[in-house]
Automatic annotation (TrEMBL):
This is histidine kinase. Its EC number is 2.7.13.3. It is a multi-pass membrane protein. PROSITE patterns: HAMP, HIS_KIN, PAS. It catalyses: ATP + protein L-histidine = ADP + protein N-phospho-L-histidine. GO terms for biological process: osmosensory signaling via phosphorelay pathway; regulation of DNA-templated transcription. It comes from the Bacteria. It comes from Bacteroides reticulotermitis. The chain crosses the membrane at residues 7-29, 49-71. It is found in: Cell membrane; Membrane. Keywords: ATP-binding, Cell membrane, Kinase, Membrane, Nucleotide-binding, Phosphoprotein, Transferase, Transmembrane, Transmembrane helix, Two-component regulatory system. One of its GO terms (molecular function) is phosphorelay response regulator activity. Residues 73-125 form the HAMP domain. Residues 276-492 form the Histidine kinase domain.
Length: 492
């Protein structure tokens, strides 16, 4: 029965009963007025009419109370049930179904509700299984990678990790998945080293930051399966469009380890090959220079003009060869980790004088004027391997001369900053270096494209390595067409 019928029926019954009550009252009134009030017949009729009025009156009250109690409940109860059902759906209980009795309107509502709940349940089941399938697919891909890979959220909890990473870290999947990497790192050195980069400590000193940067650059050495392996660590931030769909929000990190053991082995084979060859070449080239010196000795016999030119050319080329051999040997020393510093107290001016002396002939050849800038006040002494630092300064001065135009001028100097750092610099007014190459010029064998002056592309990279070995730095400040300044910094 629908609500409308219910209401009509209830009101109809009530009205009919009231009509009946009124009719009986009228009959009663007629009896009272039409007959002799004191006659026995009138008394009986009155009695009967009163009884019927009472019965109909009580029935009227009962029906009224019944309607008053039942009618609102019969409307509000299904509404309550529908509200409860909606709440269940909102709480993701898609199995909830409604049964609202035989109320026609509510039957329709409950049918629609149940259809909706079923569809939601089906959709949920299908998306859940889709998600599960996608997760499985991703896990298979990650596991099939030969390189170790670890995924972390912003709180550094491990979200995923492949078998390679588990084997390198010597951990079990169940021990670490969804667990805090920082906690696991307390008992796993390797993981600690890996996540160190991601953990920022507020009180971190500059030295600690530098140490981190150095570690990041150097490959990770791992002993596993009784052999040494080298890995290059790559950190990637995972971002996703935020709630507004525009800005990217950080979701976590992925740590990838690339096994570079093979390259490392090849590289060290190359380094030892270059080292051996350079050593082998050094002796004959030195012998050529010695013989040349004897040949130029007038006591043995004078050379004619042409022979002198030839001897000069042989000398120049042999000296270049010797300097390249020297550079290669320096490079192999750095690469093989065999660089040993022999520091001693050195005055910066001594290094400057050495570099000028070593470059005098070249400077005279191109008519380059070398100017020295040195503070009159006291400048701090350095505790460095003077041979290596002198080599760097000589190389920078040689570059400044070689890359300047003839008749140019070059400045070599030293200064002390307010923080006490000693800086040595070489400035030229040559063609300068395009900013695009300011980083690459410090790479092995790199030469700015189009450079005509002969060279090996090794000097600056070795110079930077030597400076870093001293915990110092080498930087460039250069503008095309205006010249370059190379600055060596010795941190105090
Ligand atoms: P090399 O000079 O033997 O080529 P370097 O490592 O010393 O090797 O220098 C790398 C490159 O940087 C050079 O080839 C040159 O192109 C550029 N360069 C270095 N110093 C200067 C300078 N003072 N002015 C202009 N270019 C320079």
């Amino acid at each position: 029965m629908n609500i409308k019928t219910k209401l009509t029926l209830a009101i109809g019954i009530l009205v009919a009963m009231i009509v009946l009550l009124v009719m009986l009252s009228v009959v009663n009134l007629q009896i009272l007025t039409a007959t002799e009030p004191n006659s026995p017949a009138a008394d009986l009729g009155l009695q009967r009419a009163l009884l019927w009025i009472s019965i109909v009156g009580v029935a009227c009250i009962c029906t009224g109370v019944g309607i008053w109690v039942r009618l609102p409940a019969s409307i509000s109860n299904p509404i309550k049930e529908i509200t409860g059902g909606i709440q269940e759906i909102a709480n993701h209980n898609y199995e909830k179904r409604l049964d609202l009795g035989n109320n026609q309107e509510f039957i329709e509502v409950s049918k629609n509700f149940n259809r909706m709940a079923k569809r939601l349940a089906d959709y949920h089941a299908s998306t859940l299984s889709d998600m599960k399938a996608a997760k499985k697919y991703m896990e298979t891909i990650i596991n099939s990678l030969n390189e170790p890979i670890i995924g972390l959220n912003n709180e550094l909890e491990i979200l995923f990790i492949n078998d390679e990473a588990l084997s390198v870290l010597n951990l079990k999947r169940t021990e670490i998945i969804q667990k805090s990497a920082e906690e696991i790192a307390l008992r796993n050195d390797l993981l600690r080293r890996l996540i160190r980069e991601l953990v920022s400590h507020p009180g971190e000193t500059a030295t600690e930051s530098k140490e981190k940067a150095r570690e990041k650059k150097e490959p990770l050495k791992i002993y596993a399966d009784n052999k040494e392996s080298f890995f290059q660590v790559k950190y990637m931030g995972i971002t996703q469009p935020g709630k507004n769909g525009v800005t990217l929000e950080k979701q976590g990190y992925v740590i990838m380890l690339r096994n570079i053991t093979e390259f490392k082995e090849l590289d060290s084979a190359k380094t030892s090959f270059i080292s051996t060859i350079s050593h082998e070449l050094k002796t004959p080239v030195s012998a050529i220079l010695m013989s040349l010196q004897l040949l130029e000795d007038k006591r043995i016999g004078a050379l004619n003009g042409e022979q002198e030119d030839l001897a000069d050319s042989i000398k120049e080329n042999s000296e270049r060869l010797l300097s390249i051999i020297g550079e290669l040997l320096n490079m192999t020393q750095v690469e093989s980790g065999k660089l040993q510093l022999k520091p001693k107290i050195t005055k910066p001016i001594e290094l400057i004088e050495y570099a000028i002396k070593a470059n005098r002939v070249q400077a005279e050849k191109f008519n380059i004027q070398i100017e020295v800038e040195y503070p009159e006040d006291k400048i701090g002494k350095l505790f460095v391997d003077s041979e290596k630092v002198a080599w760097v300064l000589t190389n920078l001065l040689s570059n400044a001369i070689r890359y300047s135009s003839e008749n140019g001028r070059v400045i070599i100097g030293a200064r002390q900053t307010d923080t006490g750092t000693v800086e040595m610099y070489v400035q030229d007014f040559g063609k300068g270096i395009d900013p695009r190459y300011h980083k690459s010029i410090f790479d092995h064998y790199f030469r700015v494209p189009g450079t005509k002056v002969q060279g090996s592309g090794l000097g600056l990279s070795i110079s930077r390595d030597f400076m870093e070995a001293h915990n110092g730095s080498l930087t460039v400040d250069s503008e095309l067409g205006k010249g370059s300044t190379f600055i060596m910094r010795f941190n105090s």
